[in-house]
Amino acid sequence: MSATKLLVLGIVHLSGGAHGYQVRSELQSWGAESWAKIKPGSIYHALKKAAADGLLTEHAEPGNSGPERVLYRATARGRDEMVELVRDGLRRTHDADMLNASIAMLPMLTRTDAIAQVNERVARLEAELVEQAKWREHPNRDAPEHVRDQAELWAGHARTELEWAKSLSKRLSEGAYTMADDPGSWRTVPGHLKMRF
Amino acid sequence: MSATKLLVLGIVHLSGGAHGYQVRSELQSWGAESWAKIKPGSIYHALKKAAADGLLTEHAEPGNSGPERVLYRATARGRDEMVELVRDGLRRTHDADMLNASIAMLPMLTRTDAIAQVNERVARLEAELVEQAKWREHPNRDAPEHVRDQAELWAGHARTELEWAKSLSKRLSEGAYTMADDPGSWRTVPGHLKMRF
DNA sequence: GGCCAAGTAGTCAAGCTTGACTAGCCTCTA
DNA sequence: TAGAGGCTAGTCAAGCTTGACTACTTGGCC
Hints:
DNA-binding, homodimer, mainly alpha, 3-stranded antiparallel β-sheet, 3 strands
């Protein structure tokens, strides 16, 4: 699960530099503990790891008020890696956490790129549904009955996701959201103004 | 994620004693690596942990042909704990892995119990959908636009799951599947015959 | 003025998961 | 008949996640 990594990198990028607790609070205000199941401990770990990997830089800040804290800033490599993670998360099926995280970080992509990735997802879901329908005609004798039944649920989820992805693609085409290449995006608006989109 | 624990305990119970590789193969034949994302390493770990916790017993078997191996058998406490895990997984929303694992182990429950748990899930999903609809009328200004959009996807999944759970409940009421209290269940059929339901 | 609750900021050990690796046996084939 | 490849069976270190814990500050209330 690199959803944690994606979200943590994303918040640091969007806010133009942040310390651990800030990342934690921001994710909390997005309701991310519930849909991404991220606990505080993981956030601090992910920040340190990303810094060790050269995706973020660490600046120790003496606590002006309150305890000492560490400021993290994005590096160019970090941004590239994160954009790649978002693209991957949009395409990859069977990974709800990554999808959720990627949606949250959608405006990191340019509009055309985002549309391309979402369309790729649509294509994959359609292919998997075809595959699954085939499987249902020739069920595996080894798998018990209720395991086959479970496949039914998965197919339902896939159809829901398919409709949703199609409508997202459409909305993006119609100009919804402020994407990376739009005026007023996180790339063109200075630091502390970014967090309130 | 205790889905691993549930599946591992479940296979050992259903087969009436198994060694690690057997559990691994059985899960593989169910396609469990894909829907439960379980890797071999986790299986061996889960078996050892369960044995340490008194949920399984360990019997070293000298390898008659091939390497040495360890036989695991279920204990009474292990069965109780597993039944509780299945019930919990059926009720708990927001945890796809547990739900999948619980469905796979559905016949561990008695029919009336299973129906009760599934109905509880239905009730919870309905409540959450109401909650979510309320939230959509008064969206949180702090959360960016696409995060709200993501909620849309979740609602879609919830509706799919709701329909599915209702139909499962109905099928169970109509006598589908061989449950724990039915003749021919895993509780009444001797050991090595159990794996082919 | 003093004390408690809540907020800020983060550490740490323990536990689970992952991916790569070991090692013996069996079967087929050149 | 030697070797490759695959199946059986499992180990292990490294990495990620979790939950509990520390410590300091601020604000409010009696």
